[in-house]
Amino acid sequence: MPELPEVETLKRALTPLVLNKRLLKLRFLRKDLRFSIPLSKLREGLLNQTVSRITRKGKYILMHVPDGALLIHLGMSGRVIQTSSMKPMKKHTHAVFKFEPDVYLHYVDPRRFGCLLWVPKGQTHPLLEGLGPDPLGEEIAATEMKLVAKKCSKASIKSFLMNAKRISGVGNIYACEVLFAARVSPKKPARKINSVQWGLILSTLRDILQKSIVAGGTTLRDFYNTDGSQGYYKLNLTVYDREDKPCPVCTKPIKRIVQSARSTFYCKICQK
To answer: Which among 13, 40, 53, 67 would be 20 to 30 A from 231, CA to CA?
Structure first.
């Protein structure tokens, strides 16, 4: 699933393509993805309107126009690609946008876990409500995270980092990488993480996310940028998806366990 760096990479790629551009044509090839697509609301709100700004909230992208915003989520396998016409170029193309003068964007999602929704001006959306602070924002602090984590009696630090209501945008890949870099066991209860460890975890998280954004995100299977380029941060992964391979620090085999139905990769020696 695309995580914060991949979504931020897409937001930055879309900005020069559509910012201050008018949407001339809009075509949908199905009525639903993860949720029903509000076809009439999107057509009414988007067609012939100029994009004033593009923002990101967690793993969601918002394309703002005068009366509201298009809410985009990539789900497990979604992509937004730039092509040369309205004609669908991929088998699983579900929506096509034409911006002035000749910018064509196709929303492609083979597994259909993503979404295209409408957020009226001055309102929010249930998917955005309750999201935790952005790890790249200034509102997240070690002292606050420690207080929040103390209320989580059973949650491991790995599960805590992946809970969008606690911290938005962090998924499995970066949770594993951050905890390895901070030398914290993924099994340690979040409520037992002290202030020093929280400071290290958050600073490491920001650093890794920023480096991944510069590298264009991480492409393991499905994520590609609008121009079809891959994210090359996968070359820097230290533990994720490296079961039984040597730890880059102590050379002992990387272990895999399952936490909250997700694979966790870590080093038993370096992350005691």
So the answer is: 53
pTM listed for this prediction: 0.86
pLDDT, tens digit (0-9, with 9 covering 90-100), for 229-241: 544 455 678 999 9
Of 27, 90, 111, 262, which residue is the catalytic one? 262
The stretches in the chain having pLDDT less than 50 are: 219-225, 230-232
Please state the domain count of the chain.
Answer: 2
**Are 209 and 135 within 8 A, CB to CB?**
yes
Is 3 annotated in the active site? yes
Which entry of 3, 6, 8, 177 is annotated as an active-site residue?
A: 3
- Which residues lie across from 232 on neighbouring strands? 218
Residue 138 annotated among the catalytic residues of the structure: no
Q: Are 190 and 155 in contact (CB under 8 A)?
A: yes
On whether residue 135 sits in a domain, the answer given is no
Catalytic-role residue among 59, 158, 166, 242: 59
Per the annotation, the verdict on 2 as an active-site residue is yes
- How far apart are alpha carbons 240 and 242 in whole angstroms? 5
Enclosing domain of residue 179: 142-266
- Grouping H, G, I as helix, E, B as strand and the rest as coil, residue 258 is strand
In a domain, 31, yes or no: yes
pLDDT digits over 170-203, tens only? 989 999 999 999 999 999 999 999 999 999 999 9
